[in-house]
């Protein structure tokens, strides 16, 4: 007999070759090399081992009592003793009667164990998810699910990262009275091939559930994909809650690094307004940062500038602190400032009355006027004499942020931003910042021309500061998520030009112009304007399609991208927004998401949606 290694029982000597070589135990136990050797159960999670004494009775008994495996339960065997999972098929057939040879099963992707992925497909198709939890060898299936998930995740992540722009869509769906958050990513390739993948399918837990952190989980999921090429984040307000607003307050720093610019889809076409002027500078800097993420020698500096502007509200509040103000007054009495600096401080006092304290433009203007007091206040020798430790620590942090971390003065960048965005001076602090779309477009026109004029007058140089300033001026956006769906409808080749508003055409022209300016006309504004005008005119006057023509927009633009490069670039970014909320594939997730093991549920849903497993 085989005896337990922790039991001292006498055993009869029997020859190994006399044992039943067809015994089921050798499919689940290591074959001992010699008499007296230790044989271990190979079923994942089981640690039982026996000393081989010539008989399989204890081994067979262990399989029956501990794992519910008998000779009669195995109908399909494998010649490969190293892969006991192959016999799971027979076990499933006997115990659950769900395998039918007439069911067409296909497998896509290269993975080590096809049999387990076929089992996953069967499990999904029949909704028998208790099998995953109850099978004695369920760990083998879970191991293969994890392998399949990790493999396909890396492949899809690399594929999405290589595209110029992607769109992430966040939606909340209800399946069997349960709410789920579904996050997908889609894009059009250079050849206008449409791709869409599932990033996350997760049960939406109520904010009252203290054991779950849905927003934290979503942040982690998006961080995991590391997509720096996201053009739009499309979402609907979930239960009248600003979804990304919740994420922002959940973790501001991670939100800023992860989601540089949320561009809401404006579904209500009856409203014609734009009230995001206060964030136009921020969105411009985020766009600038995103476009230079792979630029060697510049990205780190650009990120510091962006972070300094993000932090500017807190810096201004620091300078408005009563103790800090008293310290500045003391410096004035000691005649540490010139007359011009004292005049700047006086003018800064007027800006302090700005009705909107979070107005980025006026906060930059305030800090620019307070440049000299700020530098004096946070300098190493001065900071040491400040009594309040909190103020001393804040001063040290702001010095590191705005002075020590850049090879040139941050205040030169502030001067550029104030000049370029000067049209905002009398807009963002007015009582009514809700303006029409056309007014917004005119405002952006002024900003773009300011940037171009400054670019033309910029002394040519090869140092880092010149390169930074030039890249900033070139990246000034011509729109900020404005009328995205309307633009997409305009770029649908079935659209009728006479039904498109002048505002949409103007917006399309501005984006086409930006493409020419950056990629074709070598920063020549006037050439880019002419090219964009000609392109738009050609598109509007294009001949109507034949009645029997059923070519889709993607194929049409693939054939027109060389003739209309500016609009084609815009179409590649905008057209996928028309399909983000029309997704029949989501319906197939109802079965895998019912699995009690939430981790397995999310991974099986991922594999099924992304066609790693099919049935």
From TrEMBL:
One of its GO terms (cellular component) is nucleus. Keywords: Metal-binding, Nucleus, Zinc, Zinc-finger. It comes from the Eukaryota. InterPro entries: ZnF_BED_domain_contain, Znf_C2H2_sf. It is found in: Nucleus. GO terms for molecular function: zinc ion binding. The keyword Transport does not apply. This is BED-type domain-containing protein.
């Amino acid at each position: 007999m085989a005896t337990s290694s922790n039991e001292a029982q006498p055993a009869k000597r029997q020859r190994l070759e006399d044992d039943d070589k067809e015994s089921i135990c050798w499919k689940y136990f290591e074959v001992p090399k010699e008499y007296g050797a230790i044989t271990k159960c190979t079923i994942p999670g089981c640690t039982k081992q026996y000393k081989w004494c010539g008989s399989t009775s204890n081994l067979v008994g262990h399989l029956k009592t501990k794992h519910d495996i008998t000779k009669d339960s195995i109908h399909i065997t494998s010649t490969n003793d190293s892969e006991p999972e192959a016999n799971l098929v027979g076990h499933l057939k006997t115990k659950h009667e769900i395998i039918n040879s007439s069911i067409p099963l296909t497998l896509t992707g290269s993975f080590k164990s096809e049999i387990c992925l076929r089992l996953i497909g069967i499990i999904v198709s029949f909704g028998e998810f208790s099998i995953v939890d109850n099978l004695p060898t369920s760990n083998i299936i879970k191991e293969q699910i994890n392998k399949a998930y990790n493999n396909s995740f890396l492949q899809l992540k690399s594929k999405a990262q290589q595209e110029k722009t992607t769109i992430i869509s966040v939606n909340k769906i209800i399946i069997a009275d349960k709410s789920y958050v579904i996050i997908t990513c889609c894009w059009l390739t250079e050849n206008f091939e449409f791709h869409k993948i599932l990033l996350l399918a997760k049960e939406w837990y109520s904010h009252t559930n203290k054991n779950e952190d849905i927003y934290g989980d979503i942040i982690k999921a998006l961080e995991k994909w590391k997509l720096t090429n996201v053009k739009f984040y499309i979402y609907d307000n979930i239960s009248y809650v600003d979804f990304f607003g919740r994420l922002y307050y959940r973790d501001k720093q991670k939100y800023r690094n992860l989601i540089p610019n949320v561009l809401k889809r404006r579904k209500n076409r009856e409203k014609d307004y734009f009230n995001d002027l206060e964030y136009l500078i921020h969105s411009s800097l985020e766009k600038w940062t995103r476009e230079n993420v792979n630029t060697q020698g510049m990205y780190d500096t650009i990120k510091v500038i962006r972070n300094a502007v993000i932090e500017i509200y807190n810096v201004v509040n620091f300078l408005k602190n009563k103790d800090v103000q008293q310290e500045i007054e003391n410096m004035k009495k000691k005649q540490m400032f010139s007359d011009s600096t004292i005049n700047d401080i006086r003018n800064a006092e007027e800006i302090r009355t700005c009705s909107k304290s979070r107005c980025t433009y006026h906060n930059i203007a305030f800090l620019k006027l307070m440049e000299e007091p700020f530098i004096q206040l946070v300098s190493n020798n001065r900071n040491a004499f400040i009594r309040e430790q909190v103020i001393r620590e804040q001063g040290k942090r702001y010095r590191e942020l705005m002075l020590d971390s850049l090879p040139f003065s941050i205040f030169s960048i502030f001067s550029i931003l104030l000049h370029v965005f000067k049209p905002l001076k009398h807009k963002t602090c007015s009582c009514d910042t809700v303006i029409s779309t056309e007014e917004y477009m005119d405002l952006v026109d002024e900003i773009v021309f300011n940037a171009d004029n400054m670019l033309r007058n910029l002394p040519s140089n090869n140092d880092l500061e010149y390169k930074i300033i030039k890249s900033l001026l070139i990246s000034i956006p011509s729109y900020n998520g404005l009328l995205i769906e309307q633009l997409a409808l305009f770029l649908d080749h079935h659209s009728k030009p006479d039904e498109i508003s002048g505002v949409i055409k103007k917006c399309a022209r501005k984006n086409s112009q930006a493409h020419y300016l950056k990629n074709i006309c070598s920063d020549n504004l006037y050439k880019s304007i002419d090219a964009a005008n000609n392109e738009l005119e050609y598109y509007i006057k294009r001949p109507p399609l034949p009645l029997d023509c059923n070519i889709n927009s993607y194929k049409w633009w693939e054939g027109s991208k060389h003739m209309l490069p500016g609009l084609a670039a815009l179409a590649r970014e905008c057209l996928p927004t028309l399909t983000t909320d029309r997704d029949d594939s989501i319906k197939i997730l109802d079965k895998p998401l019912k699995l009690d093991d939430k981790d397995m549920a999310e991974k099986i849903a991922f594999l099924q949606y992304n066609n790693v497993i099919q049935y």
